[in-house]
Design brief:
This protein has about 240 residues and is an alpha/beta fold. It has a single domain, classed as CNF1/YfiH-like putative cysteine hydrolases (4-Layer Sandwich), CATH 3.60.140.10. About 20% of the residues lie in helices and about 30% in strands. It is built from 5 helices and 15 strands. It has a 6-stranded mixed β-sheet with strand order 1-2-15-7-3-5, with no helix packed on it. Strand 8 and strand 9 form a beta hairpin. The two termini are about 35 Å apart.
């Protein structure tokens, strides 16, 4: 069984673990730090170049500054944000997930990427759209140079909520489906993907993994409906330094 994933797109490297690598969030177990260390070592990367992003379930975007390159050990540094933008190689942004969308947008020509935590609230606030407009309007990215990556997350078939706010919003109607009793299926992933398709972005990579039903992955939603213990899996994005 494959117990981790490493995807490479040019200079961009995207990582994620699964349950067999252990829980990655300290909130759900003291072993999380050791599990992270073991996973990063298995990926043959330097843990001191991994920078933790603490999401606020909002739409806060932070752009990394050049001084991050001069930090000797980033592993103990924390940035509160829902998305971090970086143009610096050998700096990996990481955090833990259990259903929310690990989202990456990457300008392959200018070598700029943003890694975001797209949860219920940040998707509702259209964080993904704000990142797209930031790249196009501020960094002057060309649409044909942009790549989108969506990691393991909960699919609409597994995500049922009572009376969600989105059901009354016209833009959300194609993504909110009545199921039964006041329960609605929410297609967060479809909402995000369709936006980028509408922007004519051709390179969109979407994981097939549904964290809500795949028992190899932690799921907050599933744990609240079963006796399964809570946990989180590791996701990280960074650019590799070019080989000389």
């Amino acid at each position: 069984m494959v117990i981790d994933m490493k995807e490479k797109y040019g200079d961009l490297l995207i990582l994620h673990s699964n349950k067999e690598d252990g829980n990655m969030a300290k909130k759900y177990g003291e072993e999380a730090d050791m599990n992270r260390r073991n996973f990063i070592e298995k990926m043959e990367l330097n843990i001191e170049r991994f920078l933790f992003m603490q999401p606020n379930n909002s739409d806060i975007i932070v752009e990394l500054k050049e001084d991050v390159l001069f930090e000797e050990n980033l592993y103990y540094k924390l940035i509160e944000a829902d998305a971090i933008v970086s143009k610096y190689p050998n700096v990996f942004i990481y955090l833990s997930f259990a259903d929310c969308i690990p989202f990456t947008i990457y300008d392959q020509k200018q070598k700029i990427f943003a890694f975001a935590h797209l949860g219920w609230r940040s998707t509702y606030l259209d964080l993904h759209q704000k990142l797209f407009h930031l790249f196009v309007e501020t960094y002057h990215s060309n649409v044909e140079d942009l790549m989108i990556h969506i990691g393991p997350c909960i699919k609409k078939e597994s995500y049922l909520l009572p009376n969600p706010e989105q059901k009354d919003l016209p833009v959300w109607r194609p993504y909110v489906t009545f199921v039964k009793d006041d329960l609605y299926s929410i297609d967060l992933r479809g909402y995000v993907v369709d936006f980028f398709k509408g922007q004519k972005i051709e390179q969109i990579h979407v994981s097939d993994i549904d964290t809500g039903s795949n028992l190899n992955y932690f799921s907050h939603y599933r744990s609240t409906h079963t006796n399964e213990l809570e946990g989180r899996f590791f996701c990280s994005v960074g650019m590799l330094e070019k080989e000389s």
